[in-house]
Every structure is written in C-alpha cells, then in structure tokens.
Amino acid sequence: MKKLYTAVVTAKGGREGHITSADGIIDLELRKPAAMGGEDGYANPELLFAGAWGSCYLGALGSVAKKDNIDVSEATAQVHISFNQESETTYALSAELHVHIPGSELSETQRLADLAHKGCPYSKATRGNIEVKVIAV
C-alpha cells in the first residue's frame, strides 16, 4: 500500500475540547450536542465524521459511475451518524448514507450507491464495526 497523504489533527479535552490540524486549517472548539447534554452551535465528533465520510463517499461514487459514463457531479450523500447507548457504560455509532443522483432511477442509484460503499475508504473502515445502511433517495 502506497501512502498518499497523512492528516494530522491534535485533540484536547475530549467532547468538551478543541481540535487543531497541523496545517492550521482546522481550529475548532468541540461540544456535546444539546441532545446529549451539551450546547448547540459547536462542532462535535459525529458532525465531523459525517462530513468526512460523505465527502470521501462521493469520490468513490464518482469512480464507480465513471465506468458506466454516468454523471454524478450533482449527486449528494446525506450522512446520518448516530451516537447510541448500548448499556450504562458502553456506546456505539451507527450510520445511514442517503444517496441521491438527480435524474437517476432509484434502482440505478441503489446499485451505484452499493458499489461506492464497497470501495469508499470510510465505508471500508467501518465495515463490520458499526451498523450501516446505504439508501437511495
């Protein structure tokens, strides 16, 4: 495997903390969302994960669609990341990826969405670790 890029981000303070990237592009205060006893208006790990996964996933969608000469430049991936309580002291994530390709039949969108899910690095990283649903919309 050839390493193409490495992102470096330092986190301090956990969910009530701060993250900073080595290149200075990211410099964010983090807070738990209001639904978890925190406050709205701040980034949280689930938002960041959803944004990163969605962006990466659309890259994979473009790769698989290109093989069939299908334009997915206007496609969207709405990523839902849920923070779930398993027991009193354990938690787990779950995800839904809602994929929309304008002008595409739902069955074709689902086919491409599933293929992209097989190749996306974030999808690969979570495979077998969390519950994930890929849904054409």
Automatic annotation (TrEMBL):
- Offer one example of a GO biological process linked to this entry: response to oxidative stress
State the Gene3D superfamilies in the record: 2.20.25.10, 3.30.300.20
**Pfam families, alphabetized:** OsmC (PF02566)
Give me the segments passing through the membrane: none
Q: Which InterPro entries match?
A: KH_dom-like_a/b (IPR015946), OHR (IPR019953), OsmC/Ohr_fam (IPR003718), OsmC/Ohrsf (IPR036102)
Question: Can you tell which superkingdom this protein's organism belongs to?
Answer: Bacteria
What family is this? Belongs to the OsmC/Ohr family.
Q: Which NCBIfam families match?
A: organ_hyd_perox
The name this protein carries in UniProt is Ohr family peroxiredoxin
Q: Give the organism, scientific name.
A: Mucilaginibacter myungsuensis
